[in-house]
Structure to design on (839 residues):
């Protein structure tokens, strides 16, 4: 069984970690070398020609893993202990790097601030760098971090904008029984005992296949590609590859598809070797009715949709993968205790399968419209689970710690640990993408150290330079540079980061420029982007604002004079561009933001044009166009309500519910009304004791007759308070009314049907004062839920602060517009003051 390690449970200073290292002393003596933090600030390690007194921890462990002639490396004989050692050493390396970023005492604090901000600070009298700026917590140069994955995704979408949609989606999975691995195993060893061999051989195979696809032109001439290495939960590496072909190499007809992709079991007599490889690597399952316990089964259905239907001819998909030819030719094979036919074959390319002897799924994906989902899938990052303790959130002040999110609940397998120790690249993209800076005059990022003198920082010649300002400089010097848009510049010029200058390219290899996105609400920065996207050869910021010899007062004014922002057209362009790389939920949020802040006039036209993009995620479960529109409208309504606006004010299609009634209920209300009541909870009524029954009848009398009252259920632990709550909740909900169950603690809330903490349900703020209010608006779904609620239950109220209860009281009086306690609601408090410690 491969050893799996968690980054979250490894602390270099802990007794457990030290003990594990001592247990490994038989294979590897203790070592005190530390990682060199300098390498974390660049995309690459320091140049080998530069002299260094130390090697990094990664380089040191890489050295210890090498196989050398006539020299026994005992580490490689460790079996399970070797697996554990590999995981622990990589976790040690990564933990040191993450700690270097997160602990100020162990790092030279690097700060960044806007150039104009530095000048303003100096004028204000501040001269020390450690008193201003913002800390860089987890840079985008940290491989696998959220910012790095987002950056790679945006780079991929820039390639799509330049070269078009991908044509092939290929997934290659490591075969641990490759001959190159098994022939190097020692007697008694299994592939899992040598993760170093698995990592090395897989890397060699992966590079070989990339060369075959790109340089060897196996499918034709490749215009661009991206590939990502991931690791399965069981530890084996696999590769996701997306190829964008040049026009003459694209596949367009069913015959083209059949020429490169097969989804059938080949004839065993004619193609004996290929037949055996397909049976070994390319058959899915069995699952479904043949094996309901298969891991791919979700709610009784295979999540990969096997077995597929028979099909006599290949059909091009409509916004989906193609439907490949799967003829019912009578061919059957028995595998894993079941007879499988062509319906179970995973699409493959015969030549690649025979060449690499492993699972290689080849799909034609050119017919998929929202290609961003393909790229989002391959850049999803490592498997992990996110969780948090309430105390941690309070201690962090509500701040989301990106380093902790990356580290917590992340699992590393031995092959992945070795792969990363060896420094093998996890991502690849061609052509490369250069992110172009976009900033207003004197508002660009400047890096400086904590104790730098800010006057010296500003005085540096490089401090006033950026990609954009040097683009202006090149246009002033060279006439041929003026023929290019800003985003086209990297295709002809190379950016020298160290010297902060553009240099003419000397070879044919070029980059794609990606101009960073700007939101219309950003004002001048957005209009600067519009100008840079349309005007060639600008020599300065003022040159961009000059129209017919007249200098405009702002970038927006220049856009208006040039006819670039008929206002609604600009908003339309913004939505169109965002649709290329943003998910539908983000598009819906952007649309709602435009409605509230951007004063659009042709809202209905904007809605009609971009509805398809905003409902892409809902199409997976819904095909009815009217229903899709209503689902998007419901989301837009909720977003507008969160901003204090009403959807009826914007002239959008009428929002109706499934019964054709107007004004669909708020999401919070709908969810509470759809709560299913268990029969066992209804049966509790017959088992209530005398005191419980008296309380039940009294409370229900006030609920059914809509009489206002506040109750308190008192009793030591174990006397049946929760039992009574369950009976009340079941009875009220069975009548079609809304009952809200809350408790002070999450544990107490979890034992009540649909229970939540009071802070979560009532939106009670963490910091309370004598006049605090719950943080929902009168137009919000939470407010509507509380208005319609017939019963409110708050258990363990004795454990909460008095101010929290008073906050709810004031908020209920406000939304109910009633001066009675808790707005005249029927409220049931419960708890045991005997458990409260005396002061």
């Amino acid at each position: 069984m491969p050893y799996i390690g968690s980054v979250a449970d490894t602390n270099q200073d802990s007794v457990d970690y030290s003990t594990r290292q001592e247990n490994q002393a038989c294979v590897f003596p203790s070592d005190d070398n530390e990682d060199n933090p300098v390498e974390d600030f660049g995309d690459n390690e320091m140049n080998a020609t530069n002299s260094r007194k130390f090697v990094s921890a990664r380089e040191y462990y890489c050295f210890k893993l090498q196989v050398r002639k006539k020299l026994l490396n005992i580490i490689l004989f460790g079996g399970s202990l070797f697996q554990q050692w590999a995981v622990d050493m990589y976790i040690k390396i990564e933990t040191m790097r993450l700690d270097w970023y997160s602990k100020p005492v162990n790092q030279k604090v690097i700060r960044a601030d806007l150039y104009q901000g530095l000048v303003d600070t100096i004028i204000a009298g501040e001269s020390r760098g450690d008193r201003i700026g913002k800390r860089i917590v987890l840079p985008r140069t940290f491989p696998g971090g959220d910012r790095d994955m987002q950056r790679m995704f945006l780079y991929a979408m820039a390639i799509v904008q330049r070269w078009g949609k991908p044509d092939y989606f290929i997934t290659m999975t490591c075969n641990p029984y490759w001959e190159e691995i098994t022939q190097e195993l020692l007697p008694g060893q299994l592939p899992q005992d040598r993760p170093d061999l698995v990592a090395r051989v897989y890397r060699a195979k992966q590079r070989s296949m990339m060369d075959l696809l790109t340089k060897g032109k196996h499918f034709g001439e490749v215009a661009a590609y991206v590939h990502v290495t991931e690791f399965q939960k069981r530890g084996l590496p696999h590769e996701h590859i997306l190829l964008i072909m040049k026009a003459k190499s694209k596949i367009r007809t069913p015959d083209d598809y059949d020429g490169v992709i097969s989804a059938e079991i080949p004839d065993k007599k004619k193609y004996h070797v290929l037949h055996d490889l397909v049976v070994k690597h390319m058959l899915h399952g069995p699952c479904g009715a043949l094996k309901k316990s298969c891991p791919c089964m979700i709610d009784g259905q295979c999540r990969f949709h096997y077995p597929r239907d028979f099909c006599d001819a290949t059909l091009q998909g409509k916004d989906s993968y193609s439907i490949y030819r799967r003829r019912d030719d009578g061919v059957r094979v028995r595998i894993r205790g079941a007879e499988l036919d062509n319906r179970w074959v995973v699409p493959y390319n015969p030549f690649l399968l025979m060449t690499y002897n492993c699972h290689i799924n080849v799909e034609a994906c050119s017919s998929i419209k929202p290609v961003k989902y393909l790229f989002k899938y391959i850049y999803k990052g490592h498997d992990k689970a996110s969780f948090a303790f309430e105390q941690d959130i309070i201690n962090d002040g509500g701040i989301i710690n990106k380093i902790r999110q990356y580290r917590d609940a992340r699992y590393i397998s031995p092959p992945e640990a070795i792969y990363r120790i060896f420094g093998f690249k996890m991502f690849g993209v061609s052509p490369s993408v250069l992110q172009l800076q976009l900033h207003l005059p004197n508002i660009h990022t400047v890096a400086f150290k904590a104790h730098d003198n800010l006057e010296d920082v500003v005085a540096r010649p490089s401090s006033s330079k950026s990609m954009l300002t040097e683009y202006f400089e090149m246009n002033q010097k060279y006439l041929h540079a003026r023929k290019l848009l800003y985003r086209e510049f990297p295709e002809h010029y190379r950016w020298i980061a160290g010297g902060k200058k553009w240099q003419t390219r000397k070879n044919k290899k070029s980059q794609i420029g990606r101009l960073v996105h700007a939101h219309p609400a950003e004002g001048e920065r957005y209009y600067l982007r519009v100008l840079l996207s349309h005007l060639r050869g600008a020599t300065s910021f003022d040159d961009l604002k000059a129209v017919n010899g007249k200098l405009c007062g702002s970038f927006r004014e220049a856009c208006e004079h040039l006819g670039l922002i008929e206002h609604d057209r600009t908003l339309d362009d913004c939505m169109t561009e965002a649709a290329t790389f943003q998910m539908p939920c983000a598009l819906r949020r952007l649309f709602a933001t435009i409605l509230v802040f951007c004063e659009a006039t042709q809202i209905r036209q904007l809605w009609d044009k971009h509805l398809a993009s905003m409902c892409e995620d809902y199409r997976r479960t819904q095909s009815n166009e009217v229903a899709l529109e209503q689902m998007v409208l419901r989301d837009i309504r909720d977003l507008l309500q969160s901003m204090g606006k009403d959807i009826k004010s914007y002239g959008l299609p009428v929002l109706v519910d499934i019964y054709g009634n107007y004004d669909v209920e708020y999401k919070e209300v709908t969810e509470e009304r759809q709560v299913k009541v268990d029969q066992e909870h209804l049966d509790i009524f017959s088992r209530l004791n005398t005191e419980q029954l008296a309380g039940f009848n009294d409370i229900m009398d006030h609920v059914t007759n809509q009489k206002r009252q506040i109750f308190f259920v008192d009793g030591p632990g174990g006397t049946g308070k929760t039992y009574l709550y369950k009976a009340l909740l079941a009875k009220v909900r069975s009548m079609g009314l809304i009952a809200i169950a809350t408790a002070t603690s999450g544990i107490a809330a979890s034992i009540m049907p649909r229970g939540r903490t009071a802070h979560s349900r009532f939106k009670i703020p963490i910091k309370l004062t004598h006049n605090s209010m719950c943080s929902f608006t009168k137009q919000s779904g939470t407010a509507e839920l509380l208005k319609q609620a017939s019963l409110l239950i708050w258990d363990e109220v004795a454990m909460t602060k008095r101010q929290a209860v008073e906050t709810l009281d004031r908020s209920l009086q406000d939304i109910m517009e009633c001066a009675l306690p808790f707005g005249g609601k029927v409220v049931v408090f419960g708890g045991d003051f005997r458990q409260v410690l005396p002061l």
Summary: The mean pLDDT is 80. The longest strand covers residues 222-231. The domain at 672-835 is CATH 3.40.50.300 (Rossmann fold).
